[in-house]
Amino acid sequence: DADPETRLKAIANWFSKKKSITYSSEDLQVRPASEVFQEEALAPLDAGALAATMLNVAGIKVQPVLLCGAPADKMIGQLPRANRVGEVALKVTLPNKSYWLDCDHLSEIQDSPPAGYSGLAGIVGDSETSIFQDMPVGQSDTNRKDSRIEARLDKNGKAEVLLSITESGKSGLVFREAGRELLESGKDAREQLLERLFEKIARNFSPRARVHDRYFALATKPGEPFDLSTTLSVPGFATLDNDKVRVPLPIQPNDVLANL
Predict the structure, then answer these.
(1) What pTM value is reported for the model?
(2) Buried/exposed code over 143-166 (b: 16+ C-beta within 10 A; e: otherwise)
(3) Is residue 20 helix, strand or coil?
(4) Who has the most CB within 10 Å: 18, 80, 93, 202?
(5) Is residue 106 a contact partner of residue 36, using CB atoms and an 8 Å limit?
(6) Which of the four pLDDT bands, split at 50, 70 and 90, describes residue 92?
């Protein structure tokens, strides 16, 4: 007896806990929902077909949409060339609002089409009007990445870098999914994965950088901003000579910190 929006959220939550989206050489071969229901890892099209079936059973209107890389008036003459279609999404229509499900990320309900396709053409299945439609445009401030970098040098020549990143809206979708998967994994495996991640971040700044502390949001809810931060240190990065900073040579090409 739940309302349609509650049913939609329940289906998205089920995908977040029960299924992982992967890729295979048979991505273009969509299998029946009854055949893939028990599988833990699904190709995006199989996952989308399963989600569409579950939404239909729940009494929710759903339409598959083939998303294209250009506006509708430029796409009409370029079909049926398959390479003009980027990916498939699901448009979900409730009594008072429409939502979108990205077949690559079915655990998150979105207010607009997947990132990169807002305002471009879509081929809408089971449409009561034109099957070719320009996709709605999401609010520009909902999908963004905010980065902050602070670097300082102490009197002993040790460099310290503070890096913080906030990913909002669809920009943080992959990180939010990764955080939830890490949260559900074992502690040892989680620590090893996070250690490797932050070591790579450190090396992107300087081959000599070491991770001093780190933060990776593990329990970010769908739609919430994702936060990541770390403090990196580079002992002996430079020497101080009165008011001059001297950096030992050679400086490696990938030493971002030295170039700063």
Answers:
(1) 0.68
(2) beeeeeeebeeeeebebbbebebb
(3) strand
(4) 202
(5) no
(6) very high
